[in-house]
Amino acid sequence: MKAGTAANPEAKRDSEPKKTGLPDGALSHDFDGDFQKTWDKTLETMMALPLISSDKTGGVILTDWIVDPKYSKTDELPMFGAEPTLVRYRYVVRLHEKDGGTELLLVQLAQRSGSHVWVDRPPVKEAAEKLMDKIILNMGN
Q: What architecture does CATH give domain 26-139?
């Protein structure tokens, strides 16, 4: 199923991502465009984030960890051993040719700080959807 259009990415998107075999925090989108165009536009969109690597041959883009101030509590003064709570996430993007088009899989890995270590937490769905929408919009340009 095609999800959204360049003019309105929310128009046809299912309220929930595809569930078949996808990990938590994963979104999938099928593009009509060929792999080359989809790769170029996706990488262009992802350049706004701190990238660790991009491998066109393997169809993989990895970002570094991004601390999200919206979900972090850094304004509290650490008292009596308390520490600020930080939320961070990173993205793994996988593109591959599928049925004459290109499928994009966007996986978000999220963590929060706790007791001076990072602990896995559920993905920040809103942030992943926002990034997917940016990629979809960029495909129309």
A: 2-Layer Sandwich (3.30)
